[in-house]
Amino acid sequence: MSRARAAAALTSRNWLPKASAGLVLGFALALAVSGLFAWFGPGGLFDGAGKTQVNMWLISPIWCGVLSLCFLFRSGRAAWIWLGTATLLAFALLYGGRWMITSGGL
Amino acid sequence: MRTDIVRMYKDIHAWVGIVSGLALFIAFYAGALTMFEQPIQRWASAPADLAEPVPLESVPALIAATRAAHPESARSYRIHVETGPENPARLSWDVGGDREHGPDAVYGTALDAAGALETARLNASPVGEFIDVLHQQVGLPFDHEISMPIMGAVSLLYAIALVSGLIIIIPSLVKDMFALRLGKNLKRMWLDVHNALGIFSLPFHIVMALSAVVFAFHDQFYDAQNVVVYQGELEAQWSQDGNAPEPFDPQAQPLPPAEIVTRAATQAPGFTVTTLEYRAGPDGRLGGRMMGYDPRWGMRGPTYGLVGFDVYTGEITDAAYLPGHQSGWAALVTSFFALHFGNYGGEPVRWGYFLFGLAGAFLFYSGNLLWIETRRKRLTKRHGVRAQSRSAHILGALTVGVALGSIAGISTTLVAAKWMAGHVENLAMAHSWIYYLVFLASIGWAFRRGAGQGGADLLWLCAFTTLLIPVTSLIALLPFNGGLWTWSGPVLLLDGVAAIGAGLFAAFARLTRQRALKGPRDSVWSAHVHEAERAAACPPAAGGEAPAPD
């Protein structure tokens, strides 16, 4: 609470760097999360073509959500750093988990 | 909620709204009308020069006679279990064309009283399809590949507008939700209406925004997932449900369609079959697909579910899109489509979606008006003079021109369906020209006359063109009807709704005219705006000098 108050007030003035982070990294993050859901979500990778479609639909709410809320970051820099980290983490989980499955670790 | 967050999202809401609002208006108005695409189709379709459809039991004879006279029909044809003005023939097939633009021509056959074959080119009107495409492409006339990404961008802005609008209203939600301060303060009233519509139809709008993003970008989403998720093996995902087809016996005879329908009824009770589609494979084997509906369930297509069936045994072979028989993920996906199409629950839901769609259009219209009024307040504060900026004038004219122009354009092109039939070769092209001519002329008129006067004029135009819909149907009843036609039955509802719509437009037109003449003169809605602008054309000093004449 006190941290929030101490932080500089948010304004719409620096919208462009925030929105571009939301647009680009929001999509990348949504893509990675949809991949995690496809591989490790209920049913796994092969659970019918219906699930394949659900995996694709999942991108829309995540992307829209990030794009709408990315303005809450303090600055464009913060948006790019935080969303970039989250995206890298999600992709690391996706590729790491996939490697463990395909290499017989699981 | 921190006030800086609310203030920030107010700015964002205003700007994403202003950029996407007009495209969304057209998408929602046209989309509301697509809830009645079938009645529109029926209303607009000319009678075919064919005998009454043969009973379903006699279809094998019809197929044999058609095949003898038109061998090209054997490759792919449809049996219409349900016929009507928009589907006058029991049997039809397409000639030429492609998947995106539809066939060049559709032919149908019937048997006359003596059992001889009759063939006619079917004149099902393309106007319903035109309105649907207008809806899908947010009113843009470009090719699908160009229009859809723009529609997708608009949908993303729409999603931001929804979230930001919600954040803005949360602090005052309890206070404002049921407040409708009708009365002297017009801006307050418009804001209350805007908020109430937004809050009460929020779930509807969330569904529309999220599904529209998918409709715009599904190819790109799949392509991207193919690379990073499926390691280039998306195809393996699609083929995982496929069961290998039974070996084909070339001697096998297709079951008569009446038998197919009977067997479908026992396998899928409650599913009403409307159409059977046949397509011959390279080895001569016929594949079958049936379309139909079940009001108890949502459906994957806008007005139908799809079922694959074995032409030779009548067995349902692919129930992935059979309403109510889907399992797990497929049912979930169908529910996303059904929520967008409003095709679950029958007539009440259909009407509900119609009204929500119109309310949505009004939401965007009111949003633009609020933007204009807010700017007026700000300018007034800043300059101490009651005035509206140039941008407010432009946006005001653009708003009434685009919104009312699209309404008048749709009504005009719909009316033209009945007057053009039989006189015009390329109906689809003609519908497009008529719509965009009225649309662009309306925008031009709004700029010429200003938002206030132009808005009233265009509302009268909307009232007039919409009234022509039932009037055209009435003229068809006259003895000298010039070849017009009319259909009885439920399609009369369309004439009725159009008459009510025309009345509402006329009432709005009167209100707008009154405001133009008697309302505040510093508003873009005033008829006196142009005098003020002319006075401001050679301003003594920069900015906001347009004085109120009194």
UniProtKB/TrEMBL annotation, chain A:
Q: Which UniProt keywords apply?
A: Membrane, Transmembrane, Transmembrane helix
Q: Which domain of life is it from?
A: Bacteria
Membrane-spanning segments: 21-42, 54-73, 80-101
What is the name listed in the Swiss-Prot or TrEMBL entry for this protein? Uncharacterized protein
Automatic annotation (TrEMBL), chain B:
Which InterPro entries does the annotation name?
PepSY-ass_TM
Does NAD show up as a keyword for this record? no
Q: Which UniProt keywords apply?
A: Membrane, Transmembrane, Transmembrane helix
Transmembrane residue ranges? 12-32, 150-174, 195-217, 351-371, 392-416, 428-447, 459-480, 492-511
Q: Which domain of life is it from?
A: Bacteria
Instruction: Name the chain's protein.
Output: Uncharacterized iron-regulated membrane protein
